[in-house]
């Protein structure tokens, strides 16, 4: 048993040295664990912020897409309306051109009638013979004043 007593103080010294070594190594290890925890927390925070930014950007992208779709739809509607309006105006122009052509034909017909009646057609001024109606009413046997007046009132206005 003597050996156990001598071994025991040596073992106690070893144990004490080991404990001291363990304590000296434990402090840097605890610091490393603390740094690791800080890094984990920073990494988790960065990942959370990144996810928040991704979600925000996705929401903004969806909003921009929706707005672009809305503007596209509005532009298409405006183009459709403009095309319909253009078609209406083109149809109106065609109708007016047809009316103009018909009126030009009427003007030519009236010019020919006036020439047949003996009216000298001048570009600046139309000259209508004053006695033409009186002569015609006299030829028809109408001597009363009312028949020539009636005829005179139904004629278009010309500069005499």
UniProtKB/TrEMBL annotation:
PROSITE patterns: GTD_BINDING
One Pfam family, short name: Zein-binding
Main localization, broad class: membrane
Entry coiled-coil feature ranges: 29-92
Keyword Protein biosynthesis: no
GO cellular component: membrane
Positions of the GTD-binding domain: 13-111
Keywords on record: Coiled coil, Membrane, Transmembrane, Transmembrane helix
Molecular function via GO: myosin XI tail binding
Subcellular location: Membrane
Protein's recorded name: Myosin-binding protein 7 isoform X1
Gene field: LOC107459394
């Amino acid at each position: 048993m003597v050996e156990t007593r001598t071994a025991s103080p040596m073992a106690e010294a070893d144990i004490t040295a080991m404990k001291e070594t363990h304590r000296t190594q434990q402090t840097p290890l605890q610091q490393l664990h603390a740094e690791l925890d800080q890094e984990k927390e920073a990494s988790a925070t960065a990942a959370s912020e990144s996810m928040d930014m991704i979600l925000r950007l996705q929401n903004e992208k969806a909003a921009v897409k929706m707005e672009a779709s809305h503007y596209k739809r509005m532009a298409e509607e405006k183009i459709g309306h403009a095309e319909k309006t253009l078609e209406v105006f083109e149809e109106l122009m065609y109708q007016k051109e047809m009316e103009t052509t018909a009126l030009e034909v009427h003007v030519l017909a009236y010019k020919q009638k006036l020439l047949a009646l003996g009216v000298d057609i001048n570009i600046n001024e139309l000259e209508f013979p004053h006695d033409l109606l009186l002569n015609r009413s006299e030829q028809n046997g109408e001597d009363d004043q009312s028949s020539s007046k009636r005829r005179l009132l139904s004629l278009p206005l010309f500069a005499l």
